[in-house]
Amino acid sequence: MLRLRKLSLAGIAVGALALAVSTSVPLAYGHGYTTGPTSRAKHCQNGTVQNCGQIQWEPQSVEGPKGFPAAGPADGKLCSAGLAQFAELDDQRGGAWPAEQLTAGQSYNFRWYLTAPHATTDFKYYITKQGWNQNAPLTRSALDLNPFLTVTMNGARPANNVSHPGTVPGGRTGRHMILAVWTIHDTANAFYQCSDVRF
User: Fold this and answer.
1) Cα–Cα distance between 136 and 174 in angstroms, integer?
2) What is the pTM of this model?
3) Under CATH, which number does the domain 30-198 receive?
4) Angle at CA 100, nearest 5°, toward 85 and 157?
5) CA–CA separation, 1 vs 98, rounded Å?
6) Over the stretch 30-82, which tens digit does the pLDDT of each residue have?
7) With contact defined as beta carbons under 8 Å apart, do 66 and 183 qualify?
């Protein structure tokens, strides 16, 4: 009887360990943030921007449904990927977010840091239209929904440091936003990063 009880307890311990391992697997899926231009999430982690809430601890976790622009996060919640815990990213803060200076038509290396690379469909970059409403949370109607840069991966796994040479769109002056979308190949999700820029 004692031997059976020991075996039973051992079985429970092994089962608990297996459960812990299996429930931690999704954490290995892709995570990342943009470093060029620096995203709002990264500015929060750096401490450049204060009162950011939870995003300061996990700028790599802005993950929502893929399929943008036909699907994906709701309008007004694009920068947070629709995650309530990251709602601070959707607040325009009266234009107080740091903005990187760009020149229309210049060559630029758009960069990501991936804390957990994963099989990737593509990376796409969108920019706001001239005359967009800078005081309202970002919506599809504010964006040119034709990406100005698309990097197709066809399921390949990128490196941790990703650089995509491209050209900054023309026809812009003043303050704008770039929305970068990293679509994961074999999950239902994508990662969304908003960066503030100035022309």
Assistant:
1) 16
2) 0.86
3) 2.70.50.50
4) 60
5) 69
6) 799 999 999 999 999 999 999 999 999 999 999 999 999 999 999 999 999 99
7) yes
